[in-house]
Amino acid sequence: MCGITGYIGYRDAYPIVINGLKRLEYRGYDSAGIMMYDGENIHLSKTKGKVSDLEKITEQEELRKAGKIGIGHTRWATHGVPNDTNSHPHFSESGDLVIVHNGIIENYDTIKKELTSRGYTFKSDTDTEVLINLIEEVKKNEGCKLGKAVQLALNNVIGAYAIAVFDKTKPNELVVARLGSPIAIGVGKENKEFFVASDASPFIEFTKDAIYLEDGELAIIKRDKGIKVRKIETDKEVDADIQELQLNLEQIEKGGFDHFMIKEIHEQPKAILDTYRGRMLPNEGIIKMAGIDDNLPKFLNADRIIIVACGTSWHAGLVGEYLFEDMARIPVEVEYASEFRYRNPVITSKDVVIAISQSGETADTLAAIKLAKSKGAFVFGVCNVVGSSIARETHAGAYTHAGPEIGVASTKAFTTQITVLSLIALKLAQEKGTLSKTAVNNYLQTLQQIPNQIEKLLEIDPLVQHISEVYMHATNCLYLGRGFNFPVALEGALKLKEISYIHAEGYPAAEMKHGPIALIDENMPVFVIATNKGHYEKVVSNIQEIKSRSGKIIAIVTEGDVTVKEIADHVIEIPETEEAFTPLLTTIPLQLLSYHIAVMLGKNVDQPRNLAKSVTVE
Ligand code: F6R
Q1: Is 76 helix (H, G, I), strand (E, B) or coil?
Q2: How much is the CA Rg of the chain, to the nearest whole Å?
């Protein structure tokens, strides 16, 4: 949901800011803009469209040569349609102050009316322009410096923000602040240069030292001098904690692949291995997870586990429900975070809440966590992004270690989330004695084979490409699965929808006869997950029902399957594994299929329309 970036130091700011925007484009790509200060004048350029469009329009501009200080923005529109005027950065009325903003100012209308009555005029429809004028008004009235004005102004706004503000009258500083939206500050050597960004990726080649602002903090960054961090509410100075970044440049580049999505699909064997590495010793039957080990009584005495998440992470949560109930015999409820937070749910201190989020920044999931905490529940996070808001807000947690996921459509996040949930379920089963020692060891040994099995499974790519060619012009698709693979059907349908814009629905296979079967005719491709364990015979019956209504069947089966092969139009085989781990395999061909169909249709796979990677608005 919008990416912001900035630089203040001794290098040319333009390439740093523009490259930073490219790396943050996964956060939003409705419009892009940049401001540079050349020591005398502000140069500002912005446009509807992508960062590449911004680059084109700045080609001949002085702005490229201007200055050692700059800020930039890539937008996911909230207030105001995506057009040039609503693009960031925004000027204040006087033209002295400039802002970029990620988030939403909820009471902007009231503030706007008040400022209008005091003579302010507004060019855009954005809440951000209101905020920069509020800062200007406070600065004027209080006769204070920029940092103080930002702090006072922010105490009057309701909403979420990560902002970077520049003041032409004090050109050697940037003021940044956050509440609900992330900000990382890269600290260069000897305090000579600083980088600001929504995540650390824009400055990874310049410094490994980063400060992650906490919610409710503001930083005044002065060239050659350093950073002062203060609490927005109290103005109290706090110590800034400098962390060493684990990220490297290779992880955030495409590495020879055409798109991040396909790179990330191929990274799954390694990502899953990295996720369980050091956490299990299959032969000894040992599972070590600090976040669980340190809080075992909470889990073992829990009345139930409530899983909260959104989108793909919610689908992983559904797989988690099957895992926890089947292995550890703990009742589980899986909730959309966005519903849970507004539903006045019944939660007690005997509940354990597991929040799942790749980005660790999803606003609804964050709000659900806060609600659960306020009712006394113990909240455990399963996040990918280290140091993210959700990772910090939860009582304990386990990282997925998938590495940066940049393609907007989630792939390796899903399979690594399932890996973490599998380990937790097995650990709890072990502690509760709901699975025998042999069964746990067997599960762990089987899990250990998954990375190699995925590696081999990826070789089916040519077959999936062929199937993609056959069905790329479908306008509707059904995805069916049962048990552990019902969530995979949902996830398969979501992947297709979001990157190819083909309408697709996932259903529990047996639900089909209660309605969706009416849709089936010779034009309806139906993707059915029919692995050999679980409810195989039942799914075979469902396949027969589709076949007798002339539907096209693309089945995902276990190696060696005979029955489904005879009925289905196309068959994709996955290696043999425990039923509980089949989602880790069945999801792979569905990811590949969505990818190829989207590529064949000429869609922007990594940046599908209207979406953004990190959903920091509710
Ligand atoms: C789908 C997708 C989204 C996210 C959802 C939650 O491919 O990426 O549905 O899964 O926005 O995001 P996180 O996991 O970051 O909380």
Answers
A1: coil
A2: 26
Residue 59 burial (CB count, 10 A): 9
CA of 414 to the centre of ligand 1 (A): 9
CB 447 within 8 A of CB 418: no
pLDDT mean over 75-95: 88
Q: How many residues does the chain have?
A: 618
Ligand 1 geometric centre to CA of 410 (Å)? 6
What average pLDDT score do residues 196-205 get? 94
70 C-alpha to ligand 1 centroid (Å): 31
Per-residue confidence (pLDDT) for residue 43, from 0 to 100: 93
Residue of minimum CA distance from atom 8 in ligand 1: 410
The amino acid at 143: G
Pocket test for ligand 1, best of 264, 310, 405, 411 (most atoms within 8 A of CB): 310
Domains and CATH numbers, the chain: 3-249 (3.60.20.10), 258-435 (3.40.50.10490), 459-608 (3.40.50.10490)
The answer to whether residue 111 scores a pLDDT higher than 90 is yes
Choosing from 26, 312, 494 the residue with most ligand 1 atoms within 8 A of its CB, the one to mutate for a pocket test is 312
Maximum C-alpha span of the chain: 81
Instruction: Using a pLDDT cut of 90, give the percent of the chain over it.
Output: 83
In the beta sheet, which residues pair with residue 140? none
Q: Which amino acid is at 214?
A: E
Average pLDDT, the chain: 94
Model's pTM, two decimal places? 0.87
**Beta carbon of 410 within 6 Å of any ligand 1 atom:** yes
Poorest-confidence range of 10-19, 25-34, 590-599?
25-34
SS3 state at 478: strand
**Bridge partners, residue 505, by sequence:** 478
Tell me, what's the pLDDT at 614? 74
List of residues 6+ apart from 16 with CB closer than 8 A? 7, 70, 195, 202, 203, 206
pLDDT at 17: 96
> From the CB of residue 224, how many other CB atoms can be counted at a distance below 10 Å?
12
Q: Is the pLDDT of residue 513 over 90?
A: no
User: Helix/strand/coil (H, E, C) string of 121-155?
Assistant: CCCCCCHHHHHHHHHHHHHHHHCCCHHHHHHHHHC
